[in-house]
Amino acid sequence: MRLPEPLVVVDGVCLFRPRGECSLVEAVDLISRAIGYCRKRSIVKLLVNGTGLVGMSVPSLVDRFLMVEEWAHKANGFVIVVLVVDAKYIHPQKFGVKVAADFGLMCDVYDSEPPALDWLSGATPPSVR
After folding, report:
1. Could you list the pLDDT tens digit for every one of the 129 residues in the chain?
2. Cα 105 from Cα 45, distance rounded (Å)
3. For residue 81, what are the domain limits?
4. pTM reported for the whole predicted model
5. Which of 82, 89, 90 has its CA nearest to residue 114?
6. Which of 41, 42, 58 has the alpha carbon at shortest distance from 50?
7. Does some domain include residue 127?
C-alpha cells in the first residue's frame, strides 16, 4: 500500500496531511488507504488533515454514508479517526460521524487541528473500552 504523502507517527498518533488537487472519490480513497496502513501496523489513532486538498466537491448525505461505511470496514473496529477539513465540508449535525458510529467506526471531524488532537488524545481505543 503506497500513499503519496508520508505518514508520521508522533506519540502513538499517525498524522496524515495530504496535499494537492483531487476529487472527493480520490480523497476518500486516500483516507481509506491511510486507515488500512494504520490497522496493518497496529496504530490505533489517525489524524487526517485534509485542508491541503483542493478540488473536492462538498459531499452529499449519500456520499457521507458511503465514505464512512468504507472507512469503518477498513478500520475494522481498531483505528480511531479524526478529520480536519475546511468548515464547508462539515455537515451541521455531523451526519457522517453519527453514521460512522452505527458502523462501529469511532471518528470525529473538525475545522482545525488543535481541537481534533484534543479529541483524539481523549479517545479510548476500542480494545480498552
Report:
1. 455 567 899 989 999 999 999 999 999 999 999 999 999 999 999 999 999 999 999 999 999 999 999 999 999 999 999 999 999 999 999 999 999 999 999 999 999 999 999 999 999 866 544
2. 12
3. 7-122
4. 0.92
5. 82
6. 58
7. no
Q: Cell 496502513 identifies what position?
A: 37
| Cα torsion 65, 57, 20, 48: sign | negative
What CATH number does the domain containing 92 carry? 3.30.750.24
Instruction: Give how many domains the chain has, as a whole number.
Output: 1
> Is 2 contained in some domain?
no
Distance of alpha carbon 129 from alpha carbon 125, whole angstroms = 7
Three-state DSSP string of the chain = CCCCCCEEEECCEEEECCEEECCHHHHHHHHHHHHHHHHHCCCCEEEEECCEEECCCCCCHHHHHHHHHHHHHHHCCCCEEEEECCHHHCCCCCHHHHHHHHCCCCEEEECCHHHHHHHHHHCCCCCCC
